[in-house]
Specification:
This protein is an alpha+beta fold. It has seven helices and 17 strands. It folds into three domains: about 45 residues; about 120 residues, LysM domain (Membrane-bound Lytic Murein Transglycosylase D, Chain A), CATH 3.10.350.10; about 110 residues, Glucose Permease (Domain IIA), CATH 2.70.70.10. A hairpin with a 2-residue loop joins strand 6 and strand 7. The chain is elongated, with a radius of gyration of 44 Å. The chain starts with 6 loop residues before the first helix and ends in a 7-residue tail after the last strand. Bound molecules: zinc ion.
């Protein structure tokens, strides 16, 4: 009887139940096979143990009662430093190269031109010269010089930012006394509109376009308290910056005069007007027509006499105009 060690083959070959001997043999044979399989299985289990163990160890660690520590590796910082706020903020001294504009410099450092202009206390950001040094804050925000007695809380409130960010970016502790005159980075602070206009050189604008015929200062033994701008009679005269009309009428040598109050002690004068377009108390925007060019008062021809005064003292308008 050929058994040839293949029970499936023997079953399929139709030998099942041919006679009692064959059946007995098959039963004995099946017993041996089962024993062999059991031994092989046990052997395999013993041999396989070391390989199986790590799996069991991993399983047991994840199912233990103590949760594993959470660890997330730090993300890569290349290229996204400006987006990763407080802790990466720096102040860099940048030397202006030929052809640079403030907008381009700001863009290169991932920030905006307006706060940079304010931080650098610029008079006119269009007058940036190669070789100038620009202080660049590499994040959105401003710098704040600490006043006597000022706290971090007050600085944060003044700029409308989160105190926690302010402390973190400057490496300050809660309730730490600030050094007077110290420059703090104020993350996320936005500059005020007036400050931006001033830094851009747009706080004041020319009241009209015309030829400058007489500068500010001493001339012919007298003092000229403003500048003269020649223009055709009737040319509209615009307010140099927003404010409120303080005077509108006739005043001696000035002829028809408009005085606009811009706050903080600053006023502007528009003289020799042929006509006046505003009244006292009226609010004007930058560029609002206050009157028209004339030759009233002590005047030798149609022109605008324009003054800027600080607390009543005439200043050179050329220092204010863009
Ligand atoms: Zn004049």
């Amino acid at each position: 009887m050929s058994v040839n060690g293949d029970p499936l083959h023997s079953v399929e070959s139709g030998k099942r139940g041919r006679n009692g001997r064959a059946c007995r043999e098959r039963v004995r044979y099946r017993g041996w096979v089962l024993a062999l399989v059991a031994i092989l299985a046990l052997g395999a289990l013993l041999v396989g143990m070391p390989a199986v163990q790590p799996v069991q160890a991993r399983v047991s660690s994840t199912t233990s009662m103590v949760p594993p520590p959470v660890y997330s590796p730090p993300p890569p910082v290349e290229g996204d430093a400006p987006m990763d706020p407080p802790l990466h903020a720096q102040i860099i001294e940048y030397r202006v190269q030929p052809g640079d504009t403030l907008s381009e410099i700001a863009e290169d450092f991932g920030t905006d031109a307006s706060p940079l202009a304010v931080i650098n206390e610029m008079d006119n950001w269009n007058r940036l010269q190669p070789g100038d040094t620009v202080k660049v804050l590499t994040m959105s925000g401003l710098l704040h010089k600490v006043a006597p007695g000022e706290t971090a809380e007050e600085v944060a409130r003044k700029h409308g930012v989160d105190k926690v960010d302010l402390l973190a970016v400057n490496g300050l502790r809660e309730n730490q006394t600030l050094q007077v005159g110290e420059e703090l980075i104020v993350p996320g602070a936005r500059p005020q509109r007036e400050a931006v206009l001033a830094a851009r050189g747009e706080l004041y604008r020319w009241p009209l376009r015309g030829r400058l015929t007489s500068p500010f200062g001493y001339r012919w033994g007298g003092f000229h308290s403003g500048i003269d701008i020649a223009a055709s009679p009737g040319t509209p005269v615009g307010a140099t910056r927003p404010g409120r009309v303080r005077f509108a009428g006739w005043r001696g040598a000035y002829g028809n005069l408009v005085i606009v109050d811009h706050g903080e002690g600053i006023t502007s004068y528009y003289a020799h007007l042929s006509s006046i377009a505003v009244s006292v108390g009226q609010t004007v925007d930058q560029g609002t027509t206050v009157g028209r060019v004339g030759s009233t008062g002590r005047s030798t021809g149609p022109h605008l006499h324009f003054e800027i005064r600080v607390n009543g003292d005439p200043r050179n308008p050329m220092d204010y105009l863009p």
